[in-house]
Design brief:
Elements: E1 6-10, H1 15-26, E2 30-35, E3 45-48, H2 54-68, E4 73-76, H3 91-119, E5 123-127, H4 140-160, E6 166-172, H5 178-182, H6 184-191, H7 198-203, H8 215-226, E7 236-240
Parallel strand pairs: 1-2, 1-4, 2-3, 4-5, 5-6, 6-7
Length: about 250
């Protein structure tokens, strides 16, 4: 009997990462659920790591290999946000966001690459954002990092093509997650709006369909990319943005 496939999912304690880890586990995969504060009652095997630290990325990959003996899928999802005009944007927040959103995916790919190659059908998936394709004001670090992630998966796709490794960047619009909820106050301040008006006038404004995306919908797309039908989606942004980029 073949061993189940193994996946490493970052930012798995809540939101999109939790939905992906839950779906993978339901599909019979072994999952290492990595987070700064992992949920011991959440899906998969919890692993605590501060992914702004280079060594923690290597340790996460090694933990998956030690526990499961293989690594077939890496989902780089962990993220944070800071909303402020560029002239007021703290340098330390820039460094933290770029470390987590761009450097961590690179390091996970670097250290996980031999295992993905050995898998024969390795999958590297970065949860980017529609902000990897377009920009909004007051999010200099987040948007710069997400644009970088889209470039990273293009490079990984070219390097992995001969070894059966695919790489894609899933680019959703606004998703119903704690990350979105936590930025409402900062968005209200930056746009000089009451907090109760932020969802409609800022967050959903670029969506053609005025609805938040559910984490489970993002998990569905990620799961599709693991199937044989998803193998051709490599080196590309996979966009689910409620019509945002149609404008």
């Amino acid at each position: 009997m073949n061993a189940p496939k193994a996946a490493l999912v970052t930012g798995a304690a809540s939101g999109i990462g939790r939905a992906i880890a839950t779906r993978f586990e339901a599909d019979g995969m072994d999952v290492l659920s990595v987070d700064l504060k992992p949920d011991p009652d959440g899906p998969g095997t919890p692993f605590e790591a501060d992914l702004t630290n280079a060594e923690a990325n290597e340790a996460s990959v090694n933990a998956a290999l030690d526990r499961f003996g293989r690594l077939d899928v890496i989902v780089a999802n962990a993220g944070i946000q800071h909303v402020a005009p560029v002239a007021e944007f703290p340098v330390e927040r820039w460094n933290t966001i770029v470390s987590l959103l761009l450097t961590s995916p690179f390091l996970l790919a670097k250290y996980g690459w031999p295992a993905l190659k050995e898998s024969g059908a390795g999958r590297f998936i970065a949860i980017a954002s529609v902000h990897g394709l377009v920009a909004s004001p007051f999010k200099a670090a987040y948007i710069s990092a997400k644009h970088g992630v889209v470039g990273l998966v293009k490079t990984l796709a070219l390097e992995g093509a001969g070894d059966g490794i695919t790489a894609a960047a899933v680019c959703p619009g606004y998703v119903r997650t704690p990350l979105v909820e936590k930025q409402i106050a900062d968005q209200a301040k930056a746009h000089n709006l009451p907090e109760e008006d932020v969802i409609e006038q800022v967050i959903l404004a670029p969506h053609a369909v005025k609805q938040l995306i559910e984490p489970s919908e993002v998990a569905d797309v990620v799961t599709f990319l693991l199937t044989p039908a998803g193998r051709a989606f490599t080196g590309v942004p996979v966009t689910l943005d409620q019509g945002w980029t149609a404008r």
